[in-house]
Design a protein that fits this description.
Blueprint: H1 20-44, E1 50-54, H2 60-68, E2 73-78, H3 81-94, E3 99-102, E4 115-121, H4 130-138, E5 141-157, H5 170-187, H6 199-205, E6 209-220, H7 226-237, H8 248-257, E7 274-284
Parallel strand pairs: 1-2, 1-4, 2-3, 4-5
Antiparallel strand pairs: 5-7, 6-7
Helix pairs in contact: 1-2, 1-7, 2-3
The protein binds S-adenosylmethionine.
Residues 16, 23, 27, 55-57, 61, 78-80, 83, 103-105, 121-123, 126-127 line the site of S-adenosylmethionine.
Length: 286
C-alpha cells in the first residue's frame, strides 16, 4: 500500500508468521472492502473456476473469495507455512475449504497454476520489482481472466483529532512515520526497482485491458464492536515497532491506547471508529 497501513519493522524483513494475529485482526476489520471489490470483479468474471490469493497470509480474504465463489477452486499462495495453515483451517471452519500453495516470490511465480481470477492484497509492495511481479501474475491468467491488486488508498483513521491524551494530531504524525518506514522497507528489499507507483500503468504494461482503480470505503462508526476494537488495537499497535522513532509522549499515548486495561484504550473508549479507504486496481487479460 502506498505509504500507510503497515508499521514496517526496522529490520525490514518482517517475520510474517509472527504477525498472524495482527494480519487476521486487520483483515477481519477491513474485509468489507473486499466484498465491495468482489462485486466489481464479479461483473468481469462471473464464474471463475480457479482463483489464486497471492500473499494470502492467514487467509481472511481467501475465505471471503471462497464464500463468494463457492464452486471455484481457491488457492491461498504465500511464503509462510504457518500462515497457510491458518488459511486452510479458516476455509474448513467456514465450510468452504481452500487449497494452499507455498511459494517464495518472485521465484515461485512460475509454480502458480493458471487462474481465472488472481487477487493479491498488500503483497506486491513487498517485492523488489513490482512491474515484473504484476507481469508474472498477468502471465498466469487464462484468457479473459481478471487480476485485482489491492494497494494504496488513504491512511486509515480510528480516533478524533483530539483524544484527550497527549498532543492532538497523533494520526498525522503516525502517517509521517509510516511513510518513512515504507520507503526504507522498499529500499531494503531484494532487487528493488525504484519506479513511480503508478499501478494502472503497471497493470497496462503487463498487457491487461480495461484497467481501472476502484476505491472502497470501510466506514464503521463508533461505538465499535469487539472485533473491530481488536483490529484497531492491532493497526495502532504496529506503530510501536517503530516506537524509538516516535516522540516519547506519542509512544506513551500509543501504549495507553492499546492497553485493554486502560479506560482510554481503543478497546474501551466510546469514540473509536474505523474509516478506511482501500484501492483495488483491476484489469482483464486479453
Ligand atoms: C501484508 S500481508 C497481506 C496479507 C493479506 N493479503 C491481507 O491483505 O491482509 C503480506 C503477505 O505476503 C507474504 N509475502 C511477503 N513477501 C513474500 C514473498 N516474497 N513470497 C511469498 N510471500 C510473501 C507474507 O507472508 C504475508 O502473508
Amino acid at each position: 500500500m502506498a505509504h500507510h497501513g503497515h508499521g514496517h519493522e526496522h529490520a525490514h524483513h518482517p517475520d510474517w508468521s509472527a504477525l498472524a494475529a495482527e494480519i487476521e485482526a486487520e483483515g477481519l476489520t477491513l474485509a468489507p472492502y473486499v466484498l465491495q471489490a468482489l462485486d466489481v470483479i464479479g461483473e468481469r468474471v462471473a464464474a471463475p473456476r480457479t482463483i489464486l490469493d497471492v500473499g494470502a497470509g492467514p487467509g481472511v480474504f481467501t475465505a471471503v473469495l471462497a464464500a463468494r465463489f463457492p464452486s471455484a477452486r481457491v488457492i491461498a499462495v504465500d511464503g509462510a507455512d504457518p500462515l497457510l495453515e491458518r488459511a486452510r483451517a479458516r476455509g474448513v471452519e467456514q465450510g468452504t475449504p481452500v487449497d494452499v500453495l507455498r511459494a517464495d516470490l518472485p521465484g515461485g511465480f512460475v509454480e502458480l497454476p493458471a487462474a481465472d481470477l488472481i487477487w493479491t492484497a498488500q503483497t506486491m509492495h513487498h517485492l523488489g520489482d513490482q512491474h515484473a511481479a504484476v507481469a508474472a501474475l498477468a502471465g498466469r491468467l487464462e484468457p479473459g481472466g481478471v487480476l485485482a491488486v489491492a494497494e494504496g488508498g488513504l491512511p486509515s483513521r480510528f480516533l478524533p483529532r483530539d483524544i484527550g491524551l497527549g498532543r492532538p494530531g497523533l494520526a498525522d504524525r503516525l502517517d509521517a512515520l509510516q511513510a518513512v518506514g515504507f520507503g526504507e522497507m522498499r529500499a531494503a528489499l531484494d532487487g528493488t526497482v525504484d519506479v513511480p507507483e503508478d499501478w494502472p500503468a503497471i497493470l497496462r504494461a503487463a498487457g491487461l485491458r480495461d484497467v481501472r482503480a476502484y476505491t472502497f470505503l470501510v466506514d464503521l462508526p463508533a461505538p465499535l464492536d469487539e472485533d473491530a476494537r481488536r483490529g484497531v488495537a492491532h493497526m495502532l499497535g504496529r506503530y510501536l515497532r517503530m516506537a524509538d522513532r516516535l516522540d516519547p509522549d506519542d509512544a506513551a499515548v500509543l501504549r495507553r491506547l492499546i492497553d485493554p486495561e486502560d479506560p482510554m484504550s481503543v478497546q474501551r473508549r466510546p469514540d473509536a471508529f474505523v474509516l478506511a479507504a482501500r484501492t483495488v486496481y483491476i484489469g482483464t487479460a486479453p
